[in-house]
Amino acid sequence: MKRLMFCAALLALAITAAPMAAQDGGNPPVSYALNGITHIYQGWNNCGPATLTMALTYFGVAADQDPAASWLKPNFEDKNVSPWQIVEYVNTQVPGTLQAIERQGGSVDLIKTLIANDFPVMVEAGYDPPNDPQGWMGHYLFVSGYDDGRGVFVTQDSFEGPNYTYDYAYFDEYWRHFNRVFIVIYDVRREAELMALLGEDADEEANVRRALEAARAEAVANQSDVWAWFNLGTNFAKLGMWSEAAQAYDYARNLGLPFRMAWYQFGWYEAYLNTGRYQDVIDLARATLNDGGGQFVEETYYYAAIAREALGEHDRAIENLNFVISFNPNFTAARELRDQLQGS
């Protein structure tokens, strides 16, 4: 009974926190494809850099994944590149007039509209191929076209190959494992046009509230939907609603998540930190470090460092941050926190 009351209260809160707004995506043609793209197969742990580079080839950037990889993941064992890192790379490291933005809670129709207007789109999605012993993991896709007649997106998949198709329903199901996050790469001279196509989603807070409403609707439809609950946590966290985020993440964890989830998404660390649950942060970090690959996820050490400092373990916190900086010198937040703690 308490569990049902908790569900109802949290879902009702999401209703008031996330008013719906209409998306004006226009009427894209029944099929469309971006031209002038070079496919790239990924190197070791290089899904993010390879996929980004494929999208950049649309704008004439050389088809070489190494420059992006050397900045995004200086350690080739790094298991994850986050969307914000991809955006930062484009906005600070790619010369010329290219920019990138990240938004949440996208839709099949919105992606089609963006592509039909010549805006390359990257998404991060779950990836769980049949008969693959590695099991569930995160994967980036560059969506380069679509075909309503076949009901498919055409992607440049760094693992599966060029012009690899996913039907709309399958694509959306795995995309929502990452809150339907998407990255648009564009020429800054077309920024006003892009924002007009995004409509309400041009505003970041309004965009997150829309994503929250989508997750809430899915959780209402099926209260055992682990992805809906995790996405509720992610969107609550992005809105700074830390208590609600922590509760939603707890519910998702009780339903059961893939062990690699903590390699890719970090809102639960932030929710637990901001609700004073420091030992829970340490426990989650320790479980991730012991899972066979989490030791190559620098965010694990970063959030553990914050929790250890809060628990009075000052030297251990600095030790963790030094590891983060040695692993990825471009992790600015870790460097700034380390310098702050060393000066305190």
Task: Give the secondary structure arrangement, pairings included.
Layout: H1 2-17, E1 31-33, H2 47-57, H3 66-72, H4 83-93, E2 98-103, H5 108-116, E3 121-127, E4 137-147, E5 152-157, E6 161-167, H6 168-175, E7 182-187, H7 191-198, H8 204-221, H9 226-238, H10 242-255, H11 261-264, H12 267-274, H13 278-289, H14 298-310, H15 314-327, H16 332-342
Antiparallel strand pairs: 1-4, 2-7, 3-4, 3-7, 4-5, 5-6
Helix pairs in contact: 1-8, 2-3, 8-9, 9-10, 9-12, 10-12, 12-13, 13-14, 14-15, 15-16
What features would you describe in this structure?
The chain has 344 residues and is an alpha+beta fold. The protein folds into 2 domains: 2-16 and 212-342, Tetratricopeptide repeat domain (Serine Threonine Protein Phosphatase 5, Tetratricopeptide repeat, Alpha Horseshoe); 31-205, Cathepsin B, Chain A (Alpha-Beta Complex). Helix content is 51%, strand content 13%. It contains 16 helices and 7 strands. It has helices spanning 2-17, 47-57, 66-72, 83-93, 108-116, 168-175, 191-198, 204-221, 226-238, 242-255, 261-264, 267-274, 278-289, 298-310, 314-327, 332-342; strands spanning 31-33, 98-103, 121-127, 137-147, 152-157, 161-167, 182-187. Strands 1, 2, 3, 4, 5, 6 and 7 form a 7-stranded antiparallel beta sheet that branches. Strand 5 (152-157) and strand 6 form a beta hairpin. The longest helix has 18 residues, at 204-221. It is globular, with a radius of gyration of 20 Å. The protein starts with a helix and ends with a helix. Mean pLDDT is 92; it is low at 16-24.
Strand element count: 7
Distance between the termini: 48 Å
Question: Over the alpha carbons, how many angstroms does the gyration radius reach?
Answer: 20 Å
Helix content: 40-55%
Name the CATH class of the largest domain: Alpha Beta
